[in-house]
Amino acid sequence: MLSAVLAVSPLAVNWAVKASTDPPPNSVSTTPATAPAHPDTPLYGAHTSISGPTSPFHDSIAARYNYAFGKDSPFLPSNATDVSGQFLSPKSFSTADYCGHCHQEAFHQWRQSAHANSFRAPWYIKNVNMLIDEKGVQYSRHCEGCHNPVALLSGDLSQGMPKKRPFEQEGLTCSVCHSIVSTDTAGTGSWVMGTPAVLVDENGAPVTRPVSDAEILAHLDRHSKAVMRPLYKTAEFCAACHKAAIPRELDDYKWLRAISLYDEWQGASFTKQSPLPFYRKDSVSTCQTCHMIREPLRSGAVDPGAKDGKLVSHRWLGGNSLIPQYYKYDEQAQKLAEFLKNGANSIGVLNVDIFAIEKDSGSDTAGENLLAAPLGLTPFTVTPGQTLIADVVIQNKGIGHSLIPEQRDFYESWIDFTVKDSAGKVLAESGFVQPDGNLDPSAHSFTNRLINGKGELNDLHQIWHNRVLAYNNTIQSGRSQLARYRFRLPKKVTDIVSLTATVKYRRFNQHFIDYAMAAKRYPMPVLEIASETKTIQLGENAPAPPQSGENPEWMRWNNYGIALLDAQQYQAAVDAFKKVAAFRPEYADAWTNMAVVEIPWERYDDAKVHLAKALELLPGDSRALYYRALVERNAGQVEEAIADLEAMVAKYPRSRDGLRELGFSYYQKHDYARARDAYERLQAVDPDDLAAHYQLAILYRRLGEKEKAAVESARFADQKDDPTASEYALEFLRKHPEVAAESVAWHTHDLTGDAPKKSGEIKYTYIPGAGM
Question: CA-CA distance, 448 to 433, in Å (whole number)?
Fold first, then answer.
């Protein structure tokens, strides 16, 4: 897929695919039952088998069910299944009311959550009905595996089945999540449902008949065994739905990654499973750490699951700010707004830093025009009528995944940047909401653009028509992004102007919600996540004390360097990290960061020197060893690279990058057995790693495991980029210059009202002020 450079680190290179001397693997002649024998044979999805007698309910459903993708994959395009291999009656699942009469607080919190309303929200129903109307109800299984599991497992997602089902007001009800017995990290509903039960018998078997309160109270240990598993406290449990792909069974095209929250989290500093993030954390945070924090019970509320008066929250606070408004859950709305601003630990999820002021000298090379950096700590002088550029750095510091996560094509977060005079009058603005409710199309937004096979925007979340991303402006966990704004100081204002950058968020873009609700400018809450204001004095500006909560100077430079790296401004990024080293000469990561920039810049000798300094300061540091291995392998020192990667993987056995590079290094040494083992370990972490599919297809073939080679070959062929798809993105960008600049790594938002000066710039709408 054609994705923007900001989507991933420039160092996230699939060396195994790019550097292999083997051609792309082709399917071998032997085709086992697990390998695709025909282009129409499903590649993915859980395969079910039924042993023993079937239930009358299953038989009645099976007789009229549309097995669109084969009888062994009844729930595709969802990866979900159940242990019995049979359809389950909806009556198998206890209602939330049944659970809630004891677990009052959990029920109260759950009712207001996105999980509880996962199916009934009108915007979801409108979107999934679009899919059903176009392709058929069987394709909605892709969505319902996570949004409506009871409908999926009961066989209702087939032609001729009831369209209205009483349990759909509960979405993900208590007994759904608490009956899942296993998951994997493939996502798209990759869970296995056990037998729903609130009690097990003395042998540990589920009790499927109605159970009274008295029985539960008499056997609380058996109740706990029935409804609680260690799995529920892991991120892998959440990964079953908070990671998803679009399989070719849905789009009639090829496999495309849709969302990857688990992968983003797994590679972030929050997990301590990889040494590669730019910042290091002292403790591990899972999905539950942030989204299921303990919450005090309401006055008078009862819940036997509480400890010390606090219950693990079943609100799952996140980004769904529209559900509380629509259903009038004021309590949830307040807590969600606080969560988006402060995070789980009240440290804030984002940091906004108006880092620098540049002179508009005509040069557009990073670092050449800096007038004041960091802004506020450096003296500078400006004159009325002067044109300047503000560098705004947004740091994703408190989120374990990207901003925006999940469906960023129609979720909406952006920077509202304003220039105001001393009276508060807005002189210029980027990122305003237009009178029709739509966002300024030139705003710097943390979004992507999904393009179909006609080169047009999939503007209503028609994911089954996706072909390519025109760009992806997400900010990954622990990274930073730079937005630049050109503006002109007023000629008639002689005191101060203020610059304010605010990251805002609303659940959907206006176009989608108006369609979904059949309304014009349907109202949505617009929430502020983080903001900063800096003032500029016309004339001389002296240094000022740091603002409350402002990052220390070394960190401001560090975040600026990270943002410059992702904007491919390599020399300026190195210079920024040199500033960090000057402030903190003992900080090994400052030197490693210089090498992180120099490797994609192919300045390997410089990278080697800086990595040597990092390892002198922090001997055996896994992060420095990883990057030194890349430098060594580039120089043909494969044995040395293997030694460094082995040391790194020994400390971080679930590092996808480490396992991937180690596997390829073994492959270069023709140590095929060890290469296979490394790639298999990689697939245990990420079943969809493209390099692993590619290399394992080759390795299995060379090791005589032809059946496995066929499977990996087919998956590589399905998941690899379509080289023709970039044309769809280019066609869209040619037609939409108002957003085309966002696909360029280094660009400026022009608020002066002048014509564009350079490639990569577009004229931004501005609000004229006095003398501007």
Answer: 19
Place of tokens 């990251």: 503
Q: Are the beta carbons of 728 and 704 closer than 8 angstroms?
A: no
Q: What is the CA radius of gyration of the chain?
A: 27
Q: Is the dihedral of CA 684, 688, 690, 694 positive or negative?
A: positive
| Cis peptide bond prior to 404, omega within 30° of 0 | yes
Quick: pLDDT tens for 426-439.
999 999 999 999 99
Does pLDDT of 485 surpass 80?
A: yes
- 580 conformational bin, left if phi > 0, alpha if psi -120 to 50, beta if neither: alpha
Report whether 716 contacts 25 (CB < 8 A): yes
Evaluate the omega torsion of the peptide bond into residue 653 and state whether it is cis, within 30 degrees of 0.
no
pLDDT at 767: 35
Per-residue pLDDT tens digits for 216-259: 999 999 999 999 999 999 999 999 999 999 999 999 999 999 99
Measure the CA–CA gap between 472 and 743, rounded to whole angstroms.
Answer: 8
pLDDT value of residue 755: 46
Sequence-separated contacts (24+) of 203-207 with Cβ below 8 Å = none
Q: CA–CA separation, 638 vs 660, rounded Å? A: 14
Q: What is the 3-state secondary structure (H, E, C) of 303-359?
A: CCCCECCEEECCCCCCCCCHHHHHCCCHHHHHHHHHHHHHCCCCCCCEEEEEEEEEE
Site of tokens 């037998």: 195
Q: Which of 112, 174, 105, 104 is nearest to 327 (CA)?
A: 112
* Length, in residues, of the chain: 772
Residue 596 · residue 12 · CB < 8 Å: no
Neighbouring residues of 121: CB distance < 8 A, sequence distance ≥ 6: 322, 323, 326
Do residues 570 and 600 touch, judged by C-beta distance below 8 A? yes
Q: Tokens at residue 546, please?
A: 């740091």
CB 377, CB 546: distance < 8 Å: yes
Where would I find the H helices in 184-245? 213-218, 220-227, 235-239
Q: What are the phi and psi torsion angles at 414 (to 5°)?
A: -155, 170
Contact between 260 and 8 under an 8 Å Cβ cutoff? The reply is no
- DSSP, collapsed to helix, strand or coil, labels residue 448 as strand
Helix residue spans in 74-173 (DSSP H): 96-100, 104-111, 122-135, 141-147, 149-153
Confidence of residue 597 (pLDDT cuts 50, 70, 90): very high
- Cβ contacts of 609 within 8 Å, gap of 6 or more: none
Which residues are CB-contacts of 560 (< 8 A; sequence separation ≥ 6)? 353, 355, 356, 373, 374, 391, 393, 480, 482, 576
Q: How far is CA 756 from CA 11, 752, 759, in A?
A: 32, 10, 8
723: which residues sit within 8 A by CB, 6+ positions away?
A: none
Taking the C-alpha atoms of residue 167 and residue 66, their distance in angstroms, rounded to an integer, is 22
Signed CA dihedral, 330, 334, 336, 340: sign only: positive
Tell me how far apart the terminal alpha carbons of the chain are, to the nearest angstrom: 42
Pair of tokens at residue 749: 């938002």
Whether pLDDT at 168 is above 80: no
Total Cβ atoms within 10 A of residue 197 = 23
33 exposure class (CB count in 10 Å sphere: 0-12, 13-18, 19+)? exposed
Q: What number of CA atoms fall less than 13 Å from residue 314's CA on the CB side?
A: 26
Integer angstrom CA distances of residue 252 from 256, 449, 463: 11, 20, 12
Report how far Cα 146 is from the mean position of its chain's Cα atoms: 17
Burial class (CB in 10 A: 0-12, 13-18, 19+), 149: buried
